[in-house]
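Subject: Interface between my chains keeps coming out wrong

I've been trying for a while to get a sensible model of this assembly. When I model each chain on its own everything looks fine, but I need the whole thing in one frame so I can look at the contacts. Pasting all components below, labels as-is. Any help appreciated, I'm running out of ideas.
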Amino acid sequence: MQRQREGSPWTGLSAVAWKEAADHISSVRLLILLVLVLLTAFGSVYAAIGQIKETIGEDPFLFLRLLTTARDPLPSFVSFLSFLLPLIGIALAFDSINGEYSRRTMSRILSQPIYRDALLFGKFLGSMLVLALVLLTLWLLTTGLGILTLGLPPSGAEILRGLGFLVASLAYGGVWVAIALLFSTLFRAPATSALAALSLWLLFAVFWPMVTPFVAGLVAPVDPLNPVTLISQVEAQQALARLSPNTLFGETAAALLHPQTRSLGLVFLYQLQGAVRGAPLPLGQSFILIWPQLSGLIAAMVILFTGSYVSFQRQEVRA
Amino acid sequence: MSEIVIEAKGLTKRYGRVRAVESLDLTVRAGEVFGLLGPNGAGKTTTILMLLGLTEPTAGSVTVLGHDPLREPLQVKRLVGYLPDAVGFYDQLTARENLAYMARLAGIGRSERGERINRALTFVRLDGAADRAVKGFSRGMRQRLGIADLLVKNCRIAILDEPTSGLDPQSTQELLEMIGSLSREGMTILLSSHLLSLVQSTCHRVALFSAGRVGLTGTVAEVAAKVLGGSFRLEVEAQGVDLSTILSGLPALVRIEQQPNGTARVDATHDLRAEVAQRVVAGGGRLLRLEQGRLSLDEVYRRYFEQVDHAKAA
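Reply #2:
Try treating it as a single job with all components included. I did that and got this:
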């Protein structure tokens, strides 16, 4: 039997997205996280400024240094972001679907003339909107802080690299929004979905880097008589590490914010013949370098969203 | 007869081996207040969800105002409003914002929205609390806000699932009055309830549910006549005679039931007042009271389910 749906699946999408975004912006949950993120951002950038003033005076990419320089005991802005962005993503979405059930608003919403598609995608879009807003604010603040303290404006290349980094952060945060959204459709209790998402976050942020060398050693053991096995072990380890969105984001950030980065994998000495050490790559080349990482992040986001879409469409709505 | 607005034929829903609803037939006509009555778990909510297209039936078909809820869900949802059991709202938003969100989802234009919302809030007497967060609303206020939701949508059919559950008697009465006036304005109303006596005065027709099937359909009087076998009830208080012996043999008699307070309930197919009085006096008894009693739906319901249970046990 042919089941062609009438009407557009986008009906009501913007209403849902704007309402979600408005809810998030006025929520205490996001406020707490924002304060946390802003404090760490200020702290790390401020520390970076001190460090930059002391050591590197003539770097052509001073503004990018602001984001990547760490000064003991503070990590750099980028590592803070890679640690905290998942938390924001999770906070934005962990109760988006099951929260409607527990508030008993789900059946009332779905009895309005909209499809479930609009509700789910609207919620995702609303969260992404807020995430984009947060990232933009952070980026503008750090740039402003840089201009004030360093006393010079960022160059065009720096701005473009910064914008690229912004897009990558959005994709990275989006992966975590999608993970939280998936858990919110799979689990009926918001506490369960929050806990599940947080465990995954801990796994990727803390345990994954410890586990990958171990697993790589099992998968591709090193034969002391065969140097090629050494390479295959490193490659296996890298492949495993890249299953984590945190690794992908870290590599993207490294390539974009350190223009000197020439490769994100193994480089052999003969490949460096004729290269000028420490010379920055042009912007386009850096983008080509991160292309796989960036598309990996976006693909993960799409796959996770599709997962929650399928599970949500099959759900029985009774509350 | 007015137009048929909801028609269900052979509607069936199974969850694995559990039969929630089994070959259900239902017709609701325009302008009616139709009651789905039955105990919890009898399949009322499942039926409602299938009528709305929120749940896919295992078998059977539904037509709502000429549309199939599965094929044309948006059309059906545009015309039908739904007030779920224990309705929820966004607690941090005000009453007005809650209504506005639903109105936006329903595709009501900005210019029309404000006016409709104000009118609906006045109708349900929440205009004083319109800009307060729903967080502090009582159960009765939430239920009224739910009614306002239906009004804003201006739907042709309103489906209310247990609208009075958890309300105090006064709020229940208010809510039923509101439902009555919605019906007088031409809205068709389908409501489910397990509180029968309350619904009795509001519903034009009722369907008695039991274990996923509709046992009986009709007006309250019709259903009562079918279940109790008689539509006349007398309350008799007499001393010095045994009512069941002196009344036995009357062809119209259906049942005599002795009440703890000394009166007897006599059910019959037609008015037996004269015969009862005559036999009591003739039997040498003292007739203290003889009046026509009211058949309550509660009793119909209790009796009906007793019969169903007996039938099952047999």
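Reply #3:
Confirming on my end. Chain A touches chain B through 28 residues (CB under 8 Å).
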